[in-house]
Structures are given as structure tokens and as C-alpha cells.
Design brief:
There is one protein chain. The protein is α+β, with helices and mostly antiparallel strands and 161 residues long. It has a domain of 106 residues: Thiol Ester Dehydrase, Chain A. Helix content is 22%, strand content 35%. A 5-stranded antiparallel sheet has the order 1-3-4-5-2, with helices on one face.
């Protein structure tokens, strides 16, 4: 078989038809969060909260007495970890987020692992060739503690005919 005849597979997300309701997709590898990640994200987004930037001040603040990773970074990482497996190149748009929670903090050096439950999907009534998919994302740290959850509605392309 020549190089031109070899089968090629390009990484992409799932087409609407490939997404299975009530299936849990585990996203690997995880992402270890560094101090640099937290400081960069926090300053890029103009969040001046000392809890993310000021070690001396954070040490005085109960109950954690330490800096915490910006929760918006945690949310972004949770969704980002799902992209390669679910929506890379197949998503049209995020339609909205709901039911976002952060039940436990993330600290520098924690590793975030993500999984996604497909809650629902339906063909779009107004956009032929596309469908609405509802994902329930969960992030856990290396100890298995849930650190973030979010429900996300997306518009996903159907497979080309």
C-alpha cells in the first residue's frame, strides 16, 4: 500500500449523529494547574481579587489561608478538556451555560480531570443540518473531589451528506 493509499484519520469532535444521550465521556489527559496559569489568567481578565494574586493577604483569610485558582479558569479548563473529544471542528456555537457550581477550591499544583454526560440532543428546528446538544460537565481534582460542574447547551453540526 502506498503512502497515498493509506487511510488517514484527522482528530475532530463528534458529529451530532455520533453523540449518544446518557453516555459519559471521560476526557484525558488531565490538566495540572500552575501558579503561572492562575496569575496570567487572573491578570488577563482584570480580576484584582487578592485571593488569586496576593499570598500574604490570602494567608489571613479563612477558611483556606492560601491563594485559590480563579474559578473562571477552572470553568474554562473544564470545558476546554472536553473539546478534542466532543466538539473540535463540529461545534457551531455555545448557546449558553447554566447550573455552574464550584463545590471545592482548586489550588496551585492540583490536576483537573473532566467528564461529560450528554443530557439531551435534538435536531434544530430553525437551522437545518445542525442540532442542539446539552452537556453536563464535571471536573474533579486528583483526589476525586468535584471542583466544578456546569451545564452547557451547544449547537453542533450534523455529518456532511
Amino acid at each position: 500500500m502506498s503512502l497515498q493509499e493509506q487511510r488517514r484519520v484527522v482528530q475532530r469532535g463528534l458529529w451530532f449523529e455520533e453523540i449518544e444521550v446518557l453516555t459519559i465521556y471521560e476526557h484525558r489527559p488531565g490538566r495540572t494547574v500552575t501558579e503561572a496559569d492562575n496569575v496570567l489568567f487572573t491578570t488577563l481578565t482584570m480580576n484584582t481579587q487578592p485571593l488569586h494574586l496576593d499570598q500574604a493577604e490570602s494567608e489571613k483569610l479563612p477558611p483556606f489561608h492560601d491563594r485559590l485558582v480563579n474559578s473562571m479558569f477552572t470553568l474554562s479548563t473544564l470545558v476546554g478538556l472536553s473539546v478534542a473529544q466532543l466538539t473540535q471542528g463540529t461545534i457551531v456555537a455555545n448557546l449558553g451555560f447554566s447550573e455552574i457550581s464550584f463545590p471545592a477550591p482548586v489550588g496551585h499544583g492540583d490536576t483537573i480531570y473532566a467528564e461529560t454526560l450528554v443530557v439531551d440532543k435534538r435536531a434544530s428546528g430553525s437551522r437545518p443540518g445542525e442540532g442542539v446538544v446539552t452537556f453536563a460537565h464535571t471536573a474533579r481534582n486528583q483526589r476525586g473531589e468535584v471542583v466544578a460542574t456546569a451545564t452547557r447547551k451547544t449547537l453542533v453540526r450534523m455529518a456532511p451528506v
